[in-house]
Amino acid sequence: MTGLFGVEGKFSLGVYTEADKIAKQYPCVKVYKRRWVNSRAVYETAKANYKRDKLPIFLIGHSLGANEAVKIAHWLKADGIPVATVFAYDPTPFVWCIPSNVKTAIGWRGTLLFNLGKGQIRACPGSKAAIEDHPMAVPHVLIDDDPGVHRLTTKHIGEVLHMLKE
Questions:
Q1: What is the pLDDT of residue 164?
Q2: Residues 76-96 pLDDT 10s
Q3: Please, what is the Cα angle at 129 between 126 and 133, to 5 degrees?
Q4: What is the pLDDT of residue 143?
């Protein structure tokens, strides 16, 4: 999910670029490109797809979109639906904690002085989610386009899918 200004503001488009790469490399993964304000629709779609296909859910967001991805994970927890991974590309400091239905959460946060994001993901009490925190000296508006961020995102999804085949 994109951040505050989304597609109209040409903001967070790296999330869409990564979604396209994932769809091309892993055709079994259903990809939905949405703005942060469409989190309820993302939740409903993820819930319906999981109930039908039982495929892993990956949530990816930048800025407010990252915050909303974590919120969706909470909503899915209330339904007893697991989330394979939440990828948080520089969430705001008000990001929710990672709930217990999430297996892995990987976050990147900008560390520059006047960066907009800087939100650090953390597990909720009782959650055993594996948390990776990657501080980066990259501007908030560029972190979602970072090739290293994309590489790790795509690699992790591939690893999860590979484990399912075994």
A1: 82
A2: 999 999 999 999 999 998 889
A3: 120
A4: 93
Phi, psi of 94 (to 5 degrees): -95, 20
**pLDDT confidence of residue 166:** 66
Residues present in the chain in total: 166
Q: Hey, which residues does 107 pair with through a beta bridge? A: 88, 133
In angstroms, the CA 42 to CA 44 distance is 6
Cα angle for residues 109, 115, 117 (degrees, 5° grid): 45
Contacts 24+ apart (CB under 8 A), 98-101: 98/70, 98/73, 98/122, 98/123, 98/124, 98/127, 98/129, 98/131, 99/73, 99/74, 99/124, 99/127, 99/129, 100/124, 100/126, 100/127, 100/128, 100/129, 101/73, 101/76, 101/77
CA torsion angle 65 26 102 10 (round to 10): -10
Q: In the block, which residue shows the tokens 């590309």? A: 89
Contact 140, 90 (CB under 8 A): yes
pLDDT in the model for residue 115: 80
Sites in the chain below the pLDDT cut of 50 = none
> Directed axis angle between helix 13-25 and helix 147-165, to 10°?
30
